[in-house]
Amino acid sequence: MRPTTLKVGVVQQAVADNDKAKNWKRSAEQVAKLAEQGCECILLQELHSTLYFCQQEDTDAFDLAEPIPGPATDFFGQLAKKHNIVLVTSLFEKRGSGLYHNTAVVFDRSEEIAGKYRKMHIPDDPGFYEKFYFTPGDMGFTPIETSVGKLGVLVCWDQWYPEAARLMAMAGADLLFYPTAIGWDLTDTEEERSRQHGAWETIQRSHAVANSVPVIVANRTGFEASPVEGDPGIQFWGQSFIAGPQGELLAKANANEEATLAVDIDLARTEQVKRIWPYFRDRRIDAYDELTKRWRD
C-alpha cells in the first residue's frame, strides 16, 4: 500500500571537475543525510557525475558517456538499496556507437533499475550546445512506477513545456521531478538575470497548478568556467525547490551554496485539490487538435 504522506529530498550540488568517483561520493554523502532524515524519495540534479560539458562542442566529451547498465547505475543502485529509498539520478547515456542520450534513471529501494526517461526537448543555445551531444528521447512521456507512486520524471529543458507535464499527469503521475542544470550568462544584466530565474520558477510552479501535482526540482549551483577562450562561463543559479499541488513553495535552496531540501508531502491532498479545481474534467479535448501542429498558419 502506498503512503499518503511522502518525505521527499533534493540534493543541490556544485561540480568542480570530471572525477566521477569523487562526485558520486559527494552525492552519496548528501543522499545519506536525507535518508537519515526520513526521506524515502530523493532527486539528484541533471548530469551530476561531471562538469556541464555542453558549453562547447567537443567530440572528446563523448568519452564521459556510459552505458546503462554501467558504473553509474551500479553505484546508485547500490545506494538506493543501502538506504531503502527511491532515487532519481541523471547521466550521459551511451546507447550505442555514435548514439547518446541525456537520461534519468530511477531506482526503487533496489539495485535494479525501476525505469528511465530520455530527455525529449534538447536545447541548442550559446553555452548550452546539447543538440551536439544528445539524441532526443524516444520513450515518450510515461511515469515510472515505484513503491511511493508514479513518478513523472522530466529533464531540464523539458521543464519549459506544458505539454510534457500534462502528458505525464494524464498518464497518472503522482509527482513531477525535474533534474536541472541552468544558470546565468554573466554578460546579462542583473535585471535580465532576475527575469530569467523568475520565468524558470514560475513555469514549473505553473505545471504544479495546472496538473494539481507536487513538483520537485534539483538544480546545479556554483560557477563552471567555459573551455572556450573569451566565454564568461555559467553561474548556475541553484534555487532548487519543492512545490505543492497548487504551486505553493514548500522549500527552496539559495542560489550560491550547496544544499539539501527535505519536505513531507501530503499525497492525499492532491486528490482534494483536483476535486476543487477539476481542470481535467473541463478540458475541451474536442477543440485541441491543432496543438499537435508546429504553428497555426
Distance between the termini: 50 Å
Helical proportion, percent range: 25-40%
Strand content: 25-35%
Overall structural class, as computed from helix and strand content, comes to: alpha/beta
Mean pLDDT metric: 97
Biggest pleated-sheet summary: 6 strands, mixed
Strand order of the largest sheet: 5-4-3-2-1-15
Radius of gyration: 18 Å
What is the CATH T-level topology? Nitrilase/N-carbamoyl-D-aminoacid amidohydrolase
Number of separate domains: 1
Order of helices and strands: EHEHEEEEEHEEHEEEEEEHH
Question: Which class in CATH terms?
Answer: Alpha Beta
What is the 3D form?
globular
For the record, the CATH architecture stands as 4-Layer Sandwich
Instruction: Tell how many strands the DSSP assignment holds.
Output: 15
Domain CN hydrolase: 6-267
InterPro entries: Aliph_Amidase/BUP, C-N_Hydrolase, C-N_Hydrolase_sf
Keywords: Acyltransferase, Hydrolase, Transferase
Protein name: Acyltransferase
